[in-house]
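seq as requested:
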Amino acid sequence: MCEAKEIAMKFLDCWRDREWYKMLEYTQISWKKLSKRPATRLKVIFGWAELKSYKMARAKKISDVCYDIKVEIRYPTIGGKYIDDTVTLRVICEIGYMKPDVEGAWGVNPQSLFRDNKRRENENPTIV
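struct tokens:
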């Protein structure tokens, strides 16, 4: 598995385990630099959903420093049911703020998970 995919899976492990500070280790450098309190921001962004499971569906190489990782996720909703949804994680390799480079560190841009999931496309996610 390529490093970008591994970072995406570790990021999702942290969401599932609700480890916001550890999640920062797998977050894009530029995103962290733009947030005053990045761990608190991660909790706000992801704390609403208790991630139960996830599975990588597909990885698409955009460039040598960028991958889109499509992931199927499951989280509970009110009433004991679950929602199955699909999100895309953009993983970028940077050596510093806004400096993509193959010699840098891979990190997930947290906002990327919400750019094209099923609910954003006005489709209904599966409720099981």
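The beta strands are 53-63, 66-76, 82-96, 99-100, 105-109, 126-127.
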